[in-house]
Amino acid sequence: MTRELIFDTETTGFDPMTGDRLIEIGLVEMVDRSLTGSNYHAYVNPERDVPESAFKIHGLSTEFLKDKPVFSEVMDEFLEYVGSDSVLVAHNAEFDMRFINWELENAGKPILHTKRFIDTLAIARTKFPGAANSLDALCKRFGVNNTHRTLHGALLDAEILADVYIELLGGRQTGLDLAVEKSAAPMGPKKERPKRTFPVSDEELSAHQDFVKTLKDPIWLN
Predict the structure, then answer these.
(1) Catalytic residue among 58, 91, 152, 208
(2) Would you say residue 200 lies in a domain?
(3) What does the pLDDT read at residue 192?
(4) pLDDT given at position 152
(5) What span, in angstroms and rounded, lies between the C-alpha atoms of 131 and 121?
(6) How many structural domains compose the chain?
(7) Residue 162 burial (CB < 10 Å; 0-12/13-18/19+)?
(8) Is residue 206 one of the residues assigned to a domain?
(9) The pLDDT of residue 42
(10) 91 catalytic per annotation
(11) pLDDT at residue 157, as a whole number
(12) Any bridge partners for residue 40, and if so which?
């Protein structure tokens, strides 16, 4: 059984090393490439103001976040949900991983190893080199409905990314033929069919011979 957690984060900016902080985490669970309906979601008080440029992207204001728990108050629940061996899948995973691991390290917790992360952006760039590979571009390419995505949101983007990830791996039909073949009832030994004969009457034979005489230079005589 393979447990994958498709996830996304929202932040106050681009780099925790310059003071930006995590403000939202969203994860959806997939087991053996099927969504289970289980998810984890949390808003996080960044203990700083949210810049206007960031607010325009995700719509999460300083006012909205000021009464939310700080990361240290949600991290145990987050780590319990993540577990020790689940795979973490994100679009531009290095960005999300950097923020999550900074928060964990700042709280005195072990960081999540880079080997646990799968980057769907890297997969898309390999499959579609030179093409636009943003989440919105991939939704358009694969026909994934994202019309309800007016602003970025961690849980919503994780749910959309789950559908895109499945398509990047070959779509929901992957292995269908094999599954049908395996589920088919075993076939018994082939029965030989009796040979069939088609007797020709004297009248038909005579008519055929008369027709052949009318042919000029037939190819089977060359």
Answers:
(1) 152
(2) no
(3) 52
(4) 80
(5) 11
(6) 1
(7) buried
(8) no
(9) 97
(10) no
(11) 94
(12) 27
Q: Does residue 146 lie in a domain region? A: yes
- Count CA within 13 A, CB hemisphere, residue 62: 7
The two tokens of residue 97 are 């991983």
Phi/psi-derived region of residue 220, left when phi > 0, alpha when psi is between -120 and 50, beta in every other case: alpha
Q: Tell me, what's the pLDDT at 148?
A: 75
DSSP string, 130-197: TS--SHHHHHHHHT---TT-SS--HHHHHHHHHHHHHHHTT-TTTTHHHHHHHHSPPP-PPPPPPP--
CATH number for the domain spanning 98: value is 3.30.420.10
pLDDT along the chain (222 residues), means of 10: 95 96 97 95 97 95 97 97 96 97 96 96 97 96 84 88 95 49 43 52 64 58 48
C-alpha closest to that of 106 among 26, 21, 41, 40: 21
Residue-number span of the structural domain to which 35 is assigned: 3-175
- Paired tokens of 83: 């577990």
Domain assignment present for residue 217? The answer is: no
